[in-house]
TrEMBL record:
PROSITE patterns: PROKAR_LIPOPROTEIN (PS51257), SUBTILASE (PS51892), SUBTILASE_ASP (PS00136), SUBTILASE_HIS (PS00137), SUBTILASE_SER (PS00138). Residues 1-29 form the signal peptide. Residues 719-813 form the Subtilisin-like protease fibronectin type-III domain. One of its GO terms (molecular function) is serine-type endopeptidase activity. The keyword Cell division does not apply. Belongs to the peptidase S8 family. This is Peptidase S8/S53 domain-containing protein. Pfam families: fn3_6, Inhibitor_I9, Peptidase_S8. The active site is at D163 (charge relay system), H236 (charge relay system), S602 (charge relay system). It comes from Citrus clementina. Coiled coil: none annotated. GO terms for cellular component: extracellular region.
Length: 819
């Protein structure tokens, strides 16, 4: 019995130890992540200064204060958490005071309660928002001429790019100017590493840094593509940088075909590179560290064609650490332009929320690349694809076969899935003798719909088996698909419309003989793919691109609208030729290419950045908000037909009359923005007052995010002096005000007029005014509700000057009650 008792006791002890072990393992198995932390105390940029970057970065005073901030970060961590249980990734010390740390959620909770800690936010990760446009925007005949031609446009301005890095050997970034750039206000550095020697910083590229602590903390990086240097293995960063500031007149050659000459918007501006995105992963910690460094270095313009994966969860959108950092970059004198996002055309999909950053929407130009397909019956059909013609001759006809009719009929051991039998993903599925020398019809089916099949695989199959060409047709089960022109290494064409695909299949079946089992035994159909690489300049433009994210702006995850117009302005972002990286780590189809034709608000953003650089060069004393005002108030809402800009809808071919929530103020006009007549200016303190006036906003949260108490608030959030007026709810009546400054060199008289939003009448006072150079004028705007609509309606204020200046202020209001 004693032995049994001992056995029982031992069993109980073992069970208890097992429970403790499981608890112990569970504790340490808690998933770690990156957390961004803000703490009390002024950052270096504003320590004892009046919002100006006055620090000599090499001075003992600066270095001493920087060390004190970093030491304070370490003390907070050491006094709160066990040493060795966390990994501090960065100290943010210039624009904001804080750090990024890799730890567990439990540890993050402890940090939240630590003294001096104001805000703890989980890293939301970051993503990419993924030529002819200078001519489309009128730069060669307009702004470039005024600035002494393309060899001087943007000189002395430094544009910073937080992105995937840069391809330093690309001709768009060669230093064509032998003289030292006049950028004494800027102090960067050239970090070296794989594929990025010191000579990469050549005068055109004046600084290059990389930030990887966040990426290395959350993922195992692939050394073959995740280069720990400023080198761009993706291509996105090079594309963005060359669109804004690439050298003028660079030949675009892909697969031996000449597509024209590419130029950046400000071809003489200098480039500062801040690599924070990697093929494997992108983190907000790296992005924020890059923004902080760019601001400290002294960039004039900051280009963010990247952004968080989602809105912040525990605070309003504008108080997320990413947006707070942009606020303080703006305070330090940096013009910040941000991609609006690629989640359109649904409403409230913008990922740029704050009034201190300019959000760029994307639109088309009037350049298209029409592809063509000729059938054996003489019918010519349109399609998409940047490829040469079949057999190198225009509309040369070859045998036409359907993929499922030329797969292996015996000894075929492959799965009978769409990827094998109709999507042309696997060469081993085909009977080579039937496929070789034929134009093969591949079908958009399950694999493409679920994004597991690729055009790269189709092309590889075509090359392996010797297709004369391929056609990827729409499938009636999945409907029309979106097709973009992509350079194909073999003749190919995309047919994205079901109606066109049915015409092709009908002809094919008429010309194909089948046996009693339905097996194709004789192929009489013929087809030829035409030249698809020659541009055509026709049709309506601009049109807001389908993918471009829409407003209204919102304050929280519930998408409650706020009184700020987003997007701010529209720029070309559809089918943009620009520099690329031959590594092309995320797009094998573009491997080896030095240029790529891409679409996205990522592509629209650098257009605005480059134009802002031209404005800054022409008006060096202007603040970022003055530049933003000039861009917005001079934009046009009309297309090349003189009609209101249209926007693409959910259906492939559908368009609708756009609103300010599609295009913001309209299509940017560089020439008019250079001389806007009047501007509206906002100071840092005004942004704080705006935040404090938002409904249901906790002053403690504002203090935690910005370090400033709500000592003053606006009478209404819409009273922030923006070059637009957005009111998410107007009951009965509302009086707002705007303050205008004459930045011209002559006295000018302005007449006011208004296009009334539906459901309202708008009165302006004074109805006209005369304003001296550098003078200011207040304008009262009174809304009276005539009908409760319950949805936003749109109008505008137009100020017409006697010296030919025209200032437009968009109106977006929701009349909710007449009582």
């Amino acid at each position: 019995m004693a032995n049994k008792a001992n056995i029982s006791a031992n069993s109980s002890s073992c069970a208890a130890l097992l429970v403790l072990a499981i608890s112990f393992i569970g504790c340490f198995a808690e998933e770690r992540d990156i957390y961004l932390v803000l703490i009390e105390g002024e950052p270096l940029a504003f320590h004892g200064s009046d919002d100006k970057r006055r620090f000599d970065l090499n001075s003992d005073a600066y270095k001493g204060q920087a060390k004190r901030l970093m030491d304070s970060h370490d003390r907070i961590l050491q006094s709160t958490l066990e040493i060795g249980s966390y990994n501090k990734l960065y100290s943010f010390k210039y624009t904001v005071n804080g750090f990024a740390v890799h730890l567990t959620p439990t540890q993050a909770k402890k940090l939240e309660n630590a003294p001096q800690v104001k805000l703890v936010e989980r890293d939301r990760r970051a993503k990419l928002m993924t030529s002819y446009t200078p001519q489309f925007l009128g730069l060669p005949q307009g702004v470039w001429t005024q600035r002494g031609g393309d060899k001087n446009a943007g000189e002395g301005i430094v544009i910073g790019f937080v992105d995937t890095g840069i391809n330093p050997s690309h001709p768009s970034f060669a230093n064509y100017n032998p003289f030292e750039p006049n950028i004494s206000h800027f102090s960067g550095d050239c970090e070296t590493g794989p594929r990025f020697p010191l000579s990469s910083c050549n005068g055109k590229i004046v600084s290059a840094r990389f930030f990887s602590a966040g990426a290395q903390a959350v993922a195992t990086l692939n050394t073959s593509v995740d280069f720990l240097s400023p080198f761009d293995a993706v291509g996105h960063g090079s594309h963005v940088a060359s669109t804004a500031a690439g050298n003028a007149g660079v030949p675009v050659v892909v697969d031996g075909f000449f597509y024209g000459l590419a130029s950046g918007m400000a071809p003489c501006a200098r480039i500062a590179v801040y690599k924070a995105m990697y093929p494997t992963v992108g983190t907000l910690a790296d992005v924020i560290a890059a923004i902080d460094q760019a601001t400290m270095d002294g960039v004039d313009i900051l280009t963010l064609s990247i952004g968080p994966d989602e809105p912040p969860r525990d605070t309003i959108t504008m108080l997320g650490i990413f947006d707070v950092l942009m606020l303080f970059a703006r305070r330090a004198g940096v013009f910040v332009v941000q991609a609006a996002g690629n989640q359109g055309p649904a409403p409230s999909t913008v990922v740029s929320y704050s009034p201190w950053a300019v959000a760029a929407a994307a639109c088309t130009t009037d350049r298209i690349y029409p592809g063509s397909l000729l059938l054996g019956n003489g019918l010519k059909l349109g399609g998409v694809g940047l490829s040469g013609p079949t057999c190198g001759r225009p509309l040369f006809l070859s045998k036409l076969v359907l993929a499922r009719d030329v797969i292996l009929r015996v000894n075929g051991t492959f799965p009978r899935t769409p990827q094998y039998i109709e999507e042309c993903q696997y060469p081993e599925a085909f009977e080579p003798s039937l496929a070789q020398g034929s134009v093969v019809i591949c079908t958009f089916s399950d694999g493409f719909y679920n994004q597991t099949s690729t055009l790269t695989a189709v092309i590889n199959t075509a090359i392996t088996l010797g297709f004369m060409g391929f056609i990827l047709i729409a499938n009636s089960h999945y409907g029309d698909f979106v097709a973009e022109p992509i350079p194909f290494a073999v003749p190919g064409i995309l047919i994205p419309k079901v109606s066109t695909s049915e015409i092709i299949l009908q002809y094919y079946e008429q010309q194909t003989h089948r046996d009693e089992r339905g097996v194709a035994i004789k192929f009489n159909a013929q087809a030829g793919i035409g030249e698809g690489r020659v541009a055509s300049f026709e049709g309506r433009a601009p049109i807001v691109s389908r993918f471009s994210s829409r407003g209204p702006d919102f304050t929280d995850l519930s998408r409650n609208p706020t009184d700020v117009l987003k997007p701010d302005v529209t720029a070309p972002g559809h089918q943009i030729w620009a520099a690329w990286s031959p590594v092309s780590a995320l797009d094998p189809m573009l491997t080896g290419c030095n240029f790529a034709l891409l679409s996205g608000t990522s592509m629209a953003t650098p257009h605005i950045a480059g134009i802002a650089a031209l404005i800054k060069q022409h008006n060096p004393s202007w603040t970022p908000t003055m530049i933003a005002s000039a861009i917005s108030s001079t934009a046009t809402k009309y297309d090349n037909y003189g009609q209101l800009i249209m926007a693409e809808g959910f259906e492939i071919t559908s368009t609708y009359n756009s609103t300010h929530f599609d295009f913001g103020s309209g299509l940017v006009s560089a020439t008019r923005a250079l001389d806007p007549g009047l501007v509206l200016s906002v100071e840092f303190e005004d942004y704080i007052s705006f935040l404090c006036s938002l409904a249901d906003t906790d002053p403690v949260s504002i203090k935690a995010a910005t370090g400033i108490w709500c000592n003053h608030s606006l009478s209404h959030p819409a009273n922030l002096n923006l070059p637009s007026v957005t009111v998410s709810a107007v009951a009965k009546s509302l009086i707002l005000q705007r303050s205008l400054k004459n930045v011209g060199n002559k006295t000018e008289t302005y007449l006011t007029s208004v296009v009334h939003p539906n459901g309202t009448t708008v009165s302006l006072y004074p109805p006209w005014f005369t304003i001296a150079p550098q003078g200011t004028q207040d304008l009262a705007i009174q809304f009276n509700v005539t009908q409760a609509i319950g949805d936003f309606s749109f109008g505008e204020i137009v100020l017409t000057g006697s010296l030919n200046h025209t200032v437009r202020i968009p109106l977006s209001v929701k009349p909710v009650s007449i009582f």
